[in-house]
Amino acid sequence: MAAQEPRAEQESDFTPSKLGTKEYWDDAYKRELQTYKDIGDVGEIWESMHRVLKWMVKQNIPKNAAILDIGTGNGVFLVELAKEGFDNLTGIDYSNASIELTRNILEEEGLVNIKVQEQDFLNPSAELKDFDVCIDKGTFDAISLNPDGQNAAKLQYVSSLTTVLKPQGHFIITSCNWTKEQLLEIFSPGLELLQELPTPRFQFGGVTGNSVTALVFRKLC
């Protein structure tokens, strides 16, 4: 899942959106699945994949590290991770159409050993645990736009993350909506900021800023 609405400067500025609903993503991935079956187009490719992969390689993340792609979407990031040599990969999404699309793409790439599961990250199964790296490329953005209980959903997301991530494990989040300061406030309890990854910059009215935020956290215990 990947929210694409403009970034809000304050948490209170967010308004509920259809981008925060399961129905929206089910419909979106049904369309992408049909397009893939018709013409082989895998759908959206996130530029953030490359900077996250670059960081992981530079940090010498073990190739057998247990990696969770939260809201895997079309599964393309799993493909790129596998091509980089990572071999203990899991992708989850709450959209059945997303999972079907991902499985089709992985099969086409000959990557049938990657685990993909239909799961809501806010209610993870007991088996979803002990990950060395958790990666989010827009799922938290979408959850933040949920019309039903935004604050509760954000708190549950943090709870789920601390449940599935190992102590000293890494959490890498890319957000189109949240600033660095806001993400620090949300995730700092139990996690420490390791690094802010470089992202595209813009300049307007003499002010320079980032249109996307990408942060690496480490779980403290």
From TrEMBL:
In alphabetical order, the GO MF annotations are:
protein-lysine N-methyltransferase activity
Gene name of the encoded protein: EEF1AKMT2
Q: Could you tell me what reaction this enzyme catalyses?
A: L-lysyl-[protein] + 3 S-adenosyl-L-methionine = N(6),N(6),N(6)-trimethyl-L-lysyl-[protein] + 3 S-adenosyl-L-homocysteine + 3 H(+)
Q: What does this protein do?
A: Protein-lysine methyltransferase that selectively catalyzes the trimethylation of EEF1A at 'Lys-318'.
Tell me what organism the protein belongs to.
Answer: Astyanax mexicanus (Blind cave fish)
Tell me yes or no: is Oxidoreductase among this UniProt entry's keywords: no
Which cellular compartments is it found in?
A: Cytoplasm; Nucleus
Q: Which UniProt keywords apply?
A: Cytoplasm, Methyltransferase, Nucleus, S-adenosyl-L-methionine, Transferase
Q: What is this protein called?
A: EEF1A lysine methyltransferase 2
What's one Pfam family here? Methyltransf_31
Q: Which BP terms in the Gene Ontology apply to this protein? A: methylation
For the Methyltransferase domain, which residue ranges apply? 63-188
